[in-house]
């Protein structure tokens, strides 16, 4: 890179740690809100995905207490506006803004499910360490998302807050409701909660056929007048009086589905309020008869059962294939930075990072970037203002400040540091320090803002005269003189992610020529 011009800032999307969750199935009917609803993130980091399920690609992430603009709900996923595009987040890890989710005053809770798994962590992806039964009292220590942390046989365990309620709740006398709409309960038993979410304590329950006085709607919850106080019920299990229950819908093409949860209850009806009649395990194939709301009706050991659609997926479906899955030239590389452009002549680039985990490629980051002023080079030459194409290893990381946390070898730039671009010098395409003392006639100053942070792309390692020098991945948002650049935030994120033990490589190519790799 030489004589870089700095331009307007770009935006990018970074995905780092994952948040536990299970994907929902395509075909869940989306519930649109009359207007966007504001929610806050409750997880430390929450993935934003391209579709309503964990089988969809990650397009970025949001952090705890970040405010989200929710457009609609699809199963257990919220559709949101994310950096100008549509994204989806698990509803388990967000809550209506301004609400809090502590356990109720009492630390003693009662199990409402016939059998409830106790897990080693706050999520269905954690192993079951035992179980508790209906009516059993639990000592709750704290709450994490929609899970309660409990003392279980002398060790720490976690139970879903959906299946416990504060012990000793009583029903207050009934008073006349305010003006409202009348709805009818469709579930056999439906919890009434103190707030709009399963993380709120149950303050009582209503039964099938009971009429409710609905005041307003908050997300997928109805605010009701309940025995003289305010309560909330899930809109999935009530309907406007006088209407009929929507008929069950058959699933899409395939009737065979696969369980994605470690253990999944099979219930006697379409709701968590129905008794468990057994369970199925991860990878088990199910014969689905029809769909009712967010539940699948299945054939289970010769009888009818119901499973939550959140934890099964069509057997024919698979995670979207990543571009790196088809690459044949990666060798032992377990980290890949892919820089692509629509054609040779454009300076705008798309930067993606991928990492192989347990033998499978996972996408980590997607960001906007820039190339040389004239785009990609067919045959790179010194001073042509074009970025080289090809697959290269990654060299030394550098910066004008202290190491930001990269595992790569890191060199802090000083005012005397230069990169020699004199094709006639024996030091061509190497990092040196001034003064030149006749060793070169041309060199690029390293102590400039573009090199606040970056790393060397190991291009022209043979140092062939005139083939190009000083090819870096660095900070910049307009165009370069032959390097690749993105925002400082993204450069630092990538530096922190890169691990020399994973043999990282960078591939630069027009989209039309990716089949070379």
From TrEMBL:
Chain ranges of the SH3b domain: 36-98, 106-168, 180-242, 254-316
Cleaved signal peptide residues: 1-17
Identify the PROSITE patterns for this entry: SH3B
Extract the InterPro entries matched here.
Cell_Wall_Dynamics_Protein, SH3-like_bac-type, SH3-like_dom_sf
Q: Which UniProt keywords apply?
A: Signal
**One Pfam family this sequence matches:** SH3_3
Q: Which SUPFAM superfamilies match?
A: SH3-domain (SSF50044)
- The name this protein goes by in its record: SH3 domain-containing protein
């Amino acid at each position: 890179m030489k004589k870089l011009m700095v331009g307007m800032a770009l935006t990018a999307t970074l995905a780092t740690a994952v948040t536990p969750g299970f994907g929902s199935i395509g075909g869940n009917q989306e519930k649109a809100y009359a207007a966007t609803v504001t929610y806050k993130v409750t997880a430390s980091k929450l993935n934003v995905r391209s579709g309503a399920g964990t089988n969809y690609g990650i397009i970025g992430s949001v952090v705890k207490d970040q405010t989200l603009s929710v457009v609609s709900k699809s199963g257990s996923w919220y559709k949101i506006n994310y950096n100008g595009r549509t994204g989806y987040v698990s509803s388990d890890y967000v809550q209506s803004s301004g609400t809090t989710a502590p356990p109720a005053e009492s630390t003693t809770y009662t199990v409402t499910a016939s059998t409830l798994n106790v897990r080693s962590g706050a999520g269905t992806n954690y192993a079951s360490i035992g179980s508790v039964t209906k009516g059993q009292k639990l000592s709750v220590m704290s709450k994490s998302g929609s899970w309660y942390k409990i003392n279980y046989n002398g060790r720490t365990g976690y139970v879903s807050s959906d299946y416990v309620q504060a012990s000793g709740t009583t029903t207050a006398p009934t008073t006349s409701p305010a003006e409202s709409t009348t709805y009818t309960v469709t579930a056999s038993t439906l919890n009434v909660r103190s707030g709009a979410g399963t993380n709120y304590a149950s303050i009582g329950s209503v039964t099938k056929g009971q009429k409710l006085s609905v005041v307003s709607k908050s997300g997928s919850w109805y605010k009701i007048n309940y025995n003289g106080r305010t309560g909330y019920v899930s809109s999935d299990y009530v309907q406007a009086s006088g209407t009929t229950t929507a008929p069950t819908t058959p699933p899409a093409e395939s009737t065979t589905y696969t369980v994605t949860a470690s253990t999944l209850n099979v219930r006697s009806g379409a709701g968590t309020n129905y008794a468990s009649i057994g369970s199925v395990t991860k990878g088990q194939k199910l014969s689905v008869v029809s769909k009712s709301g967010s539940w699948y009706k299945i054939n289970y050991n010769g009888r009818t059962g119901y499973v939550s659609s959140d934890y099964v997926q069509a057997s024919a479906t698979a995670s979207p294939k990543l571009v790196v899955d088809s690459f044949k030239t990666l060798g032992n590389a377990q980290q890949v930075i892919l820089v692509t452009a629509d054609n040779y002549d454009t300076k705008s680039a798309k930067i993606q990072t991928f990492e192989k985990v347990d033998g499978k490629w996972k996408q980590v980051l997607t960001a906007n970037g820039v190339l040389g002023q004239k785009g990609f080079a067919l045959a790179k030459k010194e001073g042509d203002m074009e970025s080289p194409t090809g697959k290269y290893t990654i060299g030394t990381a550098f910066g004008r400040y202290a190491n930001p946390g990269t595992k790569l070898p890191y060199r802090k730039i000083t005012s005397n540091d230069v990169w020699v671009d004199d094709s006639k010098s024996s030091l061509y395409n190497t990092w040196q320090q001034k003064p030149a003392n006749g060793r070169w006639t041309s060199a690029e100053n390293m102590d400039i803002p573009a090199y606040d942070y970056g790393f060397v792309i190991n291009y022209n390692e043979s140092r062939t005269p005139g083939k190009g020098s000083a090819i870096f991945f660095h900070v910049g948002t307009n165009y370069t003189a032959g390097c690749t650049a993105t925002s400082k935030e993204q450069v630092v994120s990538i530096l922190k992610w890169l691990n020399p033990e994973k043999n990282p490589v960078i591939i630069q190519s027009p989209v039309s020529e990716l089949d070379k790799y």
